[in-house]
Design goal:
about 260 residues, alpha+beta, 6-stranded mixed beta sheet, 4-stranded antiparallel beta sheet, 12 strands, about 25% strand, globular
């Protein structure tokens, strides 16, 4: 299974076997960190692996999940930091799924332990061997239809290319906090404009969560573009910076070459 196949079959796992992941597989995950592509290479980040019994790092906060292993991502808190963090973390999530490991985002988690100077905790992943179903059929994913997520500037959904449809379907399957699916798309012939809806999360850190959501969906879109042999880049179109679509603000554009 490659990462694109994991996009279509991966599900969030909230129940884990009380079994340690092998040292070889943990080593493989740590090696994969070096292959993860950031959305913004100028943002400093650091991945930290730790276990449930770790004495130096303690997990706090609501919605905690009992798992044998955790992965934290720390980042500089600069413009676009949360989007970049979600973009990077989702690559690890999909890699774990491809290797037979379940995972789940813990967006509200806090860590008590050594701090990273000049950096902030972006998010924590719980991971390990799933106690229940690890994969699911794509048709079982509870997601909005494309017609609810998109407007097609050049016609209708039937008029888009198979490559563009594959990219949008990958975006549709992306996980998000509480499955709110806050992304909306304006689809053109050679680009997809990405918007984020106003947050429905009633807590002060909702901006970070929304950033993570958008990074996750962009990761799916870029992976799907690569799978379809479409050269794509994530760009900002300044003339759209003040535009809104379905009460969502403009984030970026996925442009095809």
């Amino acid at each position: 299974m490659n990462l694109y196949e994991a996009v279509r079959s991966r599900r969030s796992v909230r129940s884990y076997k009380n079994i340690q992941v092998s040292r070889e597989l943990i080593h493989g995950l740590k090696m994969y960190v070096g292959r993860i592509m950031p959305l913004d290479k100028n943002i400093k980040t650091e991945f930290v692996f730790f276990g449930a019994d770790d004495k130096e790092i303690k997990l706090k906060g609501p919605f905690r999940i009992r798992a044998p292993h955790f992965l934290a991502l720390f980042s500089q808190e600069v413009t676009g930091w949360a989007v970049n963090a979600g973009y990077m973390l989702e690559q690890m999530v999909l890699y774990m799924a491809a290797k037979g490991l379940g995972s789940c985002y813990m967006g509200a988690a806090r860590l008590v332990g050594p701090e990273k100077e000049g950096m902030r905790l972006a998010a924590v992943l719980a991971f390990g061997y799933a106690d229940r179903e690890l994969y699911r059929e794509q048709s079982r994913a509870k997601r909005l239809d494309l017609k609810e997520l998109c407007v097609f500037s050049d016609g209708t959904e039937e008029d888009i290319s198979p490559d563009t449809e594959a990219i949008l379907q990958a975006a549709r399957l992306a996980p998000s906090a509480f499955n709110f699916q806050p992304w909306r798309f304006v689809v053109c012939r050679d680009r997809i404009h990405v918007f984020v809806c106003r947050s429905r999360l009633a807590f002060k850190d909702s901006t970070r969560i929304q950033g993570l959501n958008m990074g996750i969906v962009l990761s799916h879109m870029m992976l799907a573009a690569e799978e379809q042999w479409v050269t794509a880049s994530v760009v900002k179109e300044e003339e759209l910076s003040d535009k809104e679509y379905r009460k969502g603000r403009y984030i970026c554009t996925v442009a095809f070459v």
